[in-house]
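Exercise 7. Given the components listed, write out the predicted structure of the assembled complex. Treat all entries as one system.
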Amino acid sequence: MRREALIVAGVERVGPYSLVSLKRGSLESGVPGQFFMLSPPGRLLPRPMSLCLATRRELAFLIDPIGPGTRALVELVRGQAVDVLGPLGNGYRLDVKRPLLVGGGIGVAPFPYLSERLGRPPAVLGFRTSEHAEAAALVPNAEVAVEPRLVTELLRPRHDVLACGPEPMLAAVARLAPRSQLAWEAPMACGYGACYGCAVRIGGELKRLCVDGPVLDAEAA
Amino acid sequence: MILNASGCLDALTAPEVARELDAFVTKTVTPQPRGGNEPVRIAETEVGMLNSIGLANPGIDSFRQDVLPRLAELELPIWVSVGGFSADDYADLCRHLDEEPVVEAVELNLSCPNVAEPVGSVAEIVAAAREATSKKLYAKLSAADGDVGSVAVAAAKAGADGLSLVNTIRGLALDPQTLAPTLSTATGGLSGPALRPIALAAVFVCFETTGLPIVGMGGVETGRHALQLIAAGASVCALGTILFSDPEAPGRIRSELTAEAEALGFENPLDAHALAHGDKAPAPLRRVA
Ligand SMILES: Cc1cc2nc3c(=O)[nH]c(=O)nc-3n(C[C@H](O)[C@H](O)[C@H](O)COP(=O)(O)OP(=O)(O)OC[C@H]3O[C@@H](n4cnc5c(N)ncnc54)[C@H](O)[C@@H]3O)c2cc1C
Ligand SMILES: Cc1cc2nc3c(=O)[nH]c(=O)nc-3n(C[C@H](O)[C@H](O)[C@H](O)COP(=O)(O)O)c2cc1C
Ligand code: FES
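Answer.
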């Protein structure tokens, strides 16, 4: 776990989302599915974000501006500094034979990096509107479903599913593919086990998602 | 001296942060294990954050068996925060900890806004705890209910060695879209910047009424904030909410504190102790923790 003030290299619109690229400094990119805490200017608490893309020089985050923290992050401009802590938590296990990435909405965020690390496996992605679906362009080999069509209709049998998306989608994926790996979300204040704010039920017990997750085996959750 | 505020750091998941402290304060331990409250447990507001963690902890038995031995390996002084629902609960917890040589001090959490109030007055609880242990006893109070200066006197008379000031104050956040409470418990404890002047006042008043050593906390984010608490009467500062956004805060605030004190002409930050009281400083500090 390292914390560093990173310089914004650029912010690019991707449909309703923004891809915020930061000069990498000395931070590790970690395992896909791990996350970073980004401190939005003017806010008290940092916000958890999955790493979307990692190059030698940059780390990029795909951000959906849904509230004050995420809005402040997408309003960052080139040259500004932002405090970043990470990588944090447990990412996806990459020792899978036939990976299939299953994403919904902003849940595609970790997939560009994950896809790269897994050798560009097939992906199925679901979005609310065709505007949101523009983010699919970031993920190689992706098949897209736009509502009312659901991403679960595109699931393929005999694949090792790695999923990220809204809770109802993850619950549906867990039912259809009980051995999948799922990346969950919870509100987080610290991201490193200090506040106990991110509690979720795992195997009947309340546990800290930032320490025990955010990626969990479907069977564990 | 810089500590963490109870419930704001887990030394086992972040030992590198704990090692920057002069002592580690545990999350409040209760007689029985507690899973804590249902999510959602935290919310950011314009002036601070709300939490309703609900004292999630493994309970005193498993704390002694599994947690304490691992904390001891950090070779840091350990303060254990305890909480219960009656004076007997507090006495039991203190008896347990009295047998643990690695425990340097016990902090009595008399003020958690997220669980039912303990039955019994502060005086009764502190007296029962005092009876049960010879460890250093700190009474942690909230500034929420009016006359914290008198409550502090009651704690002092009952045998508290020091005070921890302040705990959170009840607050509410509503979802801007639905206008429903954000937290599962509706209300929660407010911490962070909003507490800063409240904490300063509580430390100021309680130092005046008791002269006891005080661990000051509430919205400390910089060395200047820490120095102000010291001037109000604290001899130790504890960091809470700031640790969530800045795990490096202990080292940073320590050096800012030294620089800030030097800039004002003090060789040592503690030379500014109780300065805000002018000539009216109470009985000399009995013991600096
Ligand atoms: C491990 C992890 C990785 C994440 N990765 C990304 C990412 O790559 N890109 C991205 O855009 N977002 C990501 N998120 C979600 C992001 O952190 C939240 O959207 C953000 O914290 C909201 O902050 P805000 O101040 O903008 O909105 P807030 O005011 O906090 O929230 C606005 C609304 O969204 C709801 N909300 C807030 N946080 C969450 C949450 N975590 N899950 C579901 N609903 C929530 C609130 O209840 C509220 O209704 C991730 C979350 C986690 C836990
Ligand atoms: C998430 C969270 C959990 C807390 N848990 C405890 C606790 O278990 N026991 C306790 O005495 N105080 C607890 N507190 C209160 C803090 O110890 C401290 O008194 C308060 O937050 C004020 O300091 P701050 O403004 O620096 O955070 C908690 C505070 C927060 C934010
Ligand atoms: S976010 Fe603080 S413990 Fe998980």
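Discussion: Residues 2-38+54-170+190-277 of chain B form a domain with the TIM Barrel fold (CATH 3.20.20.70). Chain B touches chain A through 32 residues (CB under 8 Å).
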